[in-house]
Amino acid sequence: MHIITRRDTLKLGAGAIAAAAMAREAAAQIPASDATLNLPIENGASLRILRPARFVEPDEVLFRENTAKFTQQTGVQVRVDFVGWEDIRAQTAVTANTGTGPDVVVGWAEDPHIFADKLIELTDVAEYLGKRYGGWKFLGEKFGKRHGTNNWIGIPFGGTSGPVVYRESAVREVGYNEIPTDHERYLDLCRKLKAANKPPGFALGNAVGDGNGFANWLIWSHGGFLVDEDGKVAINQPQTVEALKYLQELYKTFVSGTLSWGDPSNNRAYAAQECFLTANGVSLYFALKNDPATAAIAADTNHAPLPSGRIGSPPQSALTINAMVFRHTRFPNAAKAWLTFMMEREQYDPWLSRCLGYWSHPLNAYDKSAVWESDPKLAVFRDSMNNRFWNGWKGPINQAAAAATAEYVMVQMCASVASGQQTPEAAAREAERRARRYYR
Amino acid sequence: MSVTATAAWKNTRQEPGWLVRLFDSKPFLVFICMLPAVGLLTVFLTYPLGLGIWLAFTDTMIGRGGSWVGLENFEYLAEDPVFWSSVFYSVFYTAVATIGKFALGLWLALLLNQHLPFKSLLRAIVLLPWITPTVLSAIAFWWIYDPQFSIVSYIVVDVLGLRDTYFDFLGSAWPARWSLIAANIWRGIPFVAICLLAGLQTISPSLYEAALLDGATPWQRFTQITVPLLMPILAIVMTFSIIFTFTDFQLVYAITRGGPVNSTHLMATLAFQRGIPGGQLAEGAAIAVSMIPFLVFATLFTYFGMARRKWQQGEGND
């Protein structure tokens, strides 16, 4: 029966208020040191903000709620537009080139570095936040500061990493208690899963998040990298070839069709119990947990860091959203005040919590957020922003790194070997040729 | 009686002003009336096309202006296997899909030209694939070709039990290529069928009656009357169809995004991929510019090849 009475509505309302109150209380757990930032907001200021569309619903709801609170407290009118993931970089480029449009863009990690010359410096905001909330995590600093300087050009809001997502029962069934961290046993696990007809699967198609995540893991965990510290292309190396040879074996264990998988494909296959081990952000678990039809799968699901292989720490980055303020804004202080406001614990913690940590925090103090205690299966996401890797590792974060990622240079190198179209040696050479085009 | 001198009526005409003369002059009027159209064409066609061609010779990236680099982009593309694979697949896709569309479309048109019950309703239904937004039908095909949830696989494997494993439509190069061609043919048939049906209806029935009296077989009637008289419209429709197919973007982009491993990139999708997500605006423009010669050639070929009078009227070469 789905008849909602007036009394129910009242209860619901009261519940929502209580939940909100609890969230605010919870925010008080976040330790904060004293720091001051003086930003006199311009008279009659108004802001336009652009950010990527949500993947989990509360992301948008809380983002809008927090922004509305900002308007209430400061009187600054703010309009937030959500655009598709593929479109936001093109729109940011137009904004940067024409000098009109949104004042603040919450874009992807590399974006402030691409448009650095068109941005105002955010060092004051970043240093205030760092001081107040226990310092920035590794990727927060990496993506926030202009390469080789201490000048902040972006304020990373959070990042989502893609650790291993697996069915505990399946992994136990084939004799493992946890996900191994070395290549040999990981391959063995996948082979046994395949033999048990519970195959793993990783995206090898042109998938922005999952495809790059898997390809980067494969190469990085074998000690390979696309470019060196100076941005010189270094993909055509023995480590890369070894990684690709490993892939030839690993690929045999995959569920069929992974060469055409996009970002949502592994989520669907996992939810349909066709695939029992993959890599994904928290969104997969979030969706399974919130749908009564799949709650049983969620209960049997767990996360583990990607196998670190030869490199020591889990070789993965975090898909980060990074805010920048354009020079053409007429209200730089209002923009900075909005950024600061959104990152303060009263706003940030409810956002983080209700998204189940989807955009994992870049500031150390939020390690204490209740969300990380709320479900032990989320623990692996807590340190997403402390990963030591980024797209285009070990090189500088710049346009070339963004282009090589968007062009799927690494993904297609892997896919061409997995599909048998190219030998590992030829694929590494081809990737080198393509990467040189961007890093010139 | 007094005689009043009446003012002599003068037979002179007011000389019209220069403005009136100007607006009476035919060449000027033609010029003036064309101006809005010229303006629209310049703003919306010539300028973007010119800009696209200009970009192809620069090194512009998204977010950064470029400078003239001459043929550098084309030189890079000339040794880029992905580009050549996209050229090959564009030509192959266009050729196979066009043949498929015309064979099936002509057949459908001939069927619809018969006297059938519910003729109008049937003709309306045939148009459905054409009027569905491409992206919607592309998403439908995306599900049909899904490796895990394909309806085709479900029927063949789970219902009929003819196979043990699901089809992997998009997982390797050739199956993916053929799958996209099938989707394109499905979408293109109605356009061809309806246009050819219109052509069929302009053929006078008396020709068929005369042929019948002369004892012509149905095949003879088809080859001697229908085909020659249909040729002019066939040429036009084929020209359009080739252009639409060659420049197709939505189907491929929505279903495979050019994958697996770039094997289904058309020149149009590759141009977009390199230009917008990849940020290499100039290289994308160079790929788009490379499409122009193919389009011009295809247009001239169908137009001159099929619209010759010999075909239409049985005369000699002229």
UniProtKB/TrEMBL annotation, chain A:
- Keyword flag Chaperone: no
Which PROSITE patterns does this one have?
TAT (PS51318)
Localization, per the record, is:
Periplasm
Family (UniProt): Belongs to the bacterial solute-binding protein 1 family.
Q: Name one Pfam family in it.
A: SBP_bac_8
List keywords of the entry alphabetically.
Answer: Signal, Transport
Organism's domain of life? Bacteria
Cite the Gene3D superfamilies for this sequence. Answer: Periplasmic binding protein-like II
What is the designated name of this protein? Extracellular solute-binding protein
Cellular compartments per GO CC = periplasmic space
Coiled coil (residue ranges)? none
Q: Which InterPro entries does the protein's record reference?
A: Bact_solute-bd_prot1, SBP, TAT_signal
From TrEMBL, chain B:
Keyword Transmembrane set for record: yes
| ABC transmembrane type-1 domain ranges (all copies) | 87-304
Keyword annotations for this protein? Answer: Cell membrane, Membrane, Transmembrane, Transmembrane helix, Transport
One GO term (biological process): transmembrane transport
Compartment annotation = Cell membrane
Reading the lineage from the top rank, the first entry is: Bacteria
**GO CC annotations on file:** plasma membrane
Write out the similarity annotation. Belongs to the binding-protein-dependent transport system permease family.
Q: What is this protein called?
A: Sugar ABC transporter permease
Q: Which organism is it from?
A: Roseicella aerolata
